[in-house]
Structure formats: structure tokens, C-alpha cells
Amino acid sequence: MNNILKLSCLGASLAFSPLGLAVDYSDDIHKNDYKWLQFNLMYALEELPRAPDDPSGHDYLEMEFGGRSGIFDLYGYVDVFDLTDHDGSDKNNRPKIFMKFAPRASLDAMTKTDLSFGPVQELYIATLFNWDGGYSKESDFPPVNNSFWGIGSDIQVPWFGKVGLNLYGLYDINNKDWNGLQLSTNWFKPFYTFSNDSFIAYQGYIDYQFAADDTFKGNSQANHGGVMFNGFYWHSNRYSVGYGFKLYNDVYLIEDSDSFESTGISHYFSVTYKF
């Protein structure tokens, strides 16, 4: 999958975006507060990266959450893999838990100043943390312990509406060193509404790593790569059901090879209850 082409298309759409819709925090930084929580029961088929002879998939439970409180904008989730401890799962005898935690601090709210311009609605100090658990650093599956630091924004894009766009530097906490940059974007676009007010949405994200060296701590790696998730979900007030697919290209800067695949496609199926 050509990630550069996808990002170029995104950039072109931004160039024709309308003026940003400013968020006014001059009187009360908590007036736009909200929060949400949902549980997703999911199955992943041929998730990458993977060895060609690995089992085909795994089940997992995901607690997904987000919201806004004053200066803070938050998104995150916790995944618990291989719920049935099945020998045929590609997560069997591997890290049991993965967590993504992505707080952003609004520069507009902190300064009580309208910093919007063009299609940019709001600016943030953006962070992202990826962690997994259950294994030591010396195991065959060393733990994920990454942090990302940078600048974020909410932008208005034709048809999509508000889209998050963040540029980070990746700091590998295990290795105590920086390892390139990451551009991330995410969207949620309802595009068909039924008579009972339930709807179908196109939702997804792109994480694209670049500007990395060919080696990191003595190990060969790709200098760019990424993933794009495309999901199509039916939503009601309490439930959602959907399917999504991920397109990978040297994901996590792992070079694709015959013995360990990091480029390709995987499939996801989900049933959700919203609190």
C-alpha cells in the first residue's frame, strides 16, 4: 500500500478545506467537556506482522474510551487477547495485554486564545503511548514500550468533517533513544442514516512512520512504513457491529520478508456495547 500517495491525497484535500471553525475557550474551558466508553468484542484475521506459518487469527476484548476535560483531549483503549486461551490463536503464549493511551493538551484552551487558521480548528501538544504486558525484556517477544511527542491539530476536511492530525517524534523507552517521526490521522464519518436514526459510518486512521535510520541499536529496519485502517460500522445508541481491514507497509519499521511478513492486509470483525 502506497502510504505516501494516501498522505498526498489527504494533503490535497486540506488545501481545499474551508476556514477552521474556532473553538472559543475564553470564558469556560470546560464547556465542551464530554466522555464515552465502549467494549468491543473482536476477532482479528491474519494480523501483521506475522510469520507465514503462524495460526490465522485471535479473539480479543477491547475497552475503548475517550473524551474532553478542560485542556485535555483523550483517546485510548486496552486490549485483552486470546480470551479462550486457544492453542490455535496467534496470540497464544504471547503478551496478553496491549494499551494505547493518547492524551493531547489544547494550546487554545491553555492560552484561552483562538489559534485557528485555514482548515485548522484547534492546536494541541500531542502525545501517544503504546504499552503491552506479560513478558520481560529478555523474552522472545520483548515488550512494546513506546512514546510519541509532538504537535497535534483538529482540521476540517471536505466530506469527512473534523479530522485529527498529529506529527510526532518516536522515543523508544526500552532503548532510551529517538527513532524517526510519525504522522497520524483519524476520522469518523457517518454517511448513511436510517429512519430509526441508526447509521453507517466510515471510520479509521493512518499511522505513517518516516525519517528513521536504516538501523536502530544495531538492528536493521525500514526507514518508513505504516498502516491504514478502514472500518465500516453500523451504529445505534447502544450497539455497533462492523468490519474493518488494515493495509500494512513495513509496519512498525519491520522490513517485510519471506520469513516475517510486515506488508499486506488483515481483517477485523467487531460487536460493540456502548456505555
TrEMBL record:
<dbReference type="GO" id="GO:0009279">
    <property type="term" value="C:cell outer membrane"/>
</dbReference>
<feature type="signal peptide">
    <location>
        <begin position="1"/>
        <end position="22"/>
    </location>
</feature>
<keyword id="KW-0732">Signal</keyword>
<dbReference type="GO" id="GO:0005337">
    <property type="term" value="F:nucleoside transmembrane transporter activity"/>
</dbReference>
<dbReference type="InterPro" id="IPR018013">
    <property type="entry name" value="Channel_Tsx-like"/>
</dbReference>
<protein>
    <submittedName>
        <fullName>Membrane protein</fullName>
    </submittedName>
</protein>
<dbReference type="InterPro" id="IPR003055">
    <property type="entry name" value="Channel_Tsx"/>
</dbReference>
<keyword id="KW-0472">Membrane</keyword>
<keyword id="KW-0998">Cell outer membrane</keyword>
<dbReference type="InterPro" id="IPR036777">
    <property type="entry name" value="Channel_Tsx-like_sf"/>
</dbReference>
<dbReference type="Pfam" id="PF03502">
    <property type="entry name" value="Channel_Tsx"/>
</dbReference>
<comment type="similarity">
    <text>Belongs to the nucleoside-specific channel-forming outer membrane porin (Tsx) (TC 1.B.10) family.</text>
</comment>
